[in-house]
Amino acid sequence: MRYPPAMPEYDVLVVGAGNAALAAAVSACEQGASRVGVLEKAPEELRGGNTHYSGGLLRFAYDKAEDLRPLVPDAERQVTGFFSGVEPYPHASFRADLDRVTEGRSDPELSEILIGRSYETVVWMARQGIVLEPAVSLSAVRVGNTVKWSPGAVIRAQHEGIGLSRMWFESAGRRGVEVRYGASARSLVQDAAGRVTGVVVQDAAGMREVSAKTVILGCGGFESNPEWRARYLGRPWDHAKVRGTRYNTGDGLRMAMAIGALPHGQWTGCHSTPIDAGAPPYGDRRLTDKTNRLSYPYGVLVNARGERFFDEGEDFQFYTYAKLGGIILGQPQGVAYQIFDAKGAPFLEGRYKTGTPMVADTLPALVAQLPLPRPVCQATLDTYNTAVGSGAFVNPSGSPRPKRYST
Ligand SMILES: Cc1cc2nc3c(=O)[nH]c(=O)nc-3n(C[C@H](O)[C@H](O)[C@H](O)COP(=O)(O)OP(=O)(O)OC[C@H]3O[C@@H](n4cnc5c(N)ncnc54)[C@H](O)[C@@H]3O)c2cc1C
């Protein structure tokens, strides 16, 4: 504990430089703070946290398609008939989705803030210079002459996460926010009364205290810390690959708990996505989220034993993919094979183009290429095909002949 300097260096010091941190820094300026600083652990060329790697897709509630017009005024120019293809996504639909995917176990107070303020937050982001666009390659399906959208997942930041991160840095720069790169927050400084008065920072020059009237922690989770993953998520999470930044190692949680913050929320679960088995151990700055493999509802998933282990069609992909990564990790060798036929292949997301598929003219010829017990896999697929009932193919928008939409 220390006596704080009479004049702290910053009014507001934000730890981290992703979406949360830079939104907080910009908001602090908007509220009248005049000296706002940001500490970014990464060097400048690797800045921006997971935000840089994200698809920049924003899920938020809106009562009618027209509510999106102020956010994407040019949408009709990009996608003809855009507003007629968008279904309403009111508060109740967002609530129902959240309750379904969490099996009713989301925090009632926090989830109410998340849903209830989602629209106004996106409007605020747009006012701060975050340019938005229809999320065509992620969520759009063409049905006849109309492009249909997965409700609530329609809008993204222009140029996805790379654009989102860049626009936040630009917005903060316009407000005079000072960003220090390669500056890692190590611990929180308190005064005799226990008030947080600054941060111990480590950078190329060594360790020093930086004082501030207010400190905001926006420095991500612990997804890039294998020891914490093993500690909280259990086996075999230390083996998982990370799609994003290598700098989120739980520092904010550690610093806060070290001064008595109460741990809250869920510690044994995480957002985990199926990615290409050849993806690097951490995110690739150029590929960003393009290693995702989310078109599994159109095919059959088998593990390294050649057996199915997941209901591919339990729900639409946006509602199941975030658990499927962890389920695959728990399978033998932590891998799975996604098998598509010629009917399913046209619906694959464009992101599959970054992978190298095994292709064959017949199912047995395809199975023959897979490094797994082939008779078991063939039997699995035969059982699956025999079980399929008759009837028309029903696609995500309910029409007989959808096509993936891309610009
Ligand atoms: C590949 C991928 C795709 C995604 N796609 C989407 C999507 O389309 N839509 C969506 O809603 N979500 C998506 N997400 C999730 C989304 O990226 C995150 O939820 C969001 O960006 C998190 O923002 P954040 O500011 O909390 O953390 P981050 O953006 O991760 O920022 C954390 C920051 O803290 C810094 N930091 C960490 N420790 C310290 C320290 N000790 N001192 C100083 N700085 C520190 C990091 O360097 C970084 O700048 C995706 C994530 C990934 C990885």
Bound molecules: flavin-adenine dinucleotide
Uncertain runs are 397-402
- The beta-strand count equals 14
* N-to-C SSE string, H for helix and E for strand: EHEHEHHHHHEHEEEHEEEEHHEHEHHE
Which value, in Å, is the CA radius of gyration? 23 Å
The fraction of residues assigned to DSSP E strands is 15-25%
Describe the sheet with the most strands: 6 strands, mixed
Rough outline: globular
Quick recap:
With 407 residues, the protein is an alpha+beta fold. Helices cover 30% and strands 16% of the residues.
Structure description:
With 407 residues, the protein is of the alpha+beta class. The protein has 14 helices and 14 strands. It has a six-stranded mixed sheet. Flavin-adenine dinucleotide binds next to helix 1, helix 2 and strand 9.
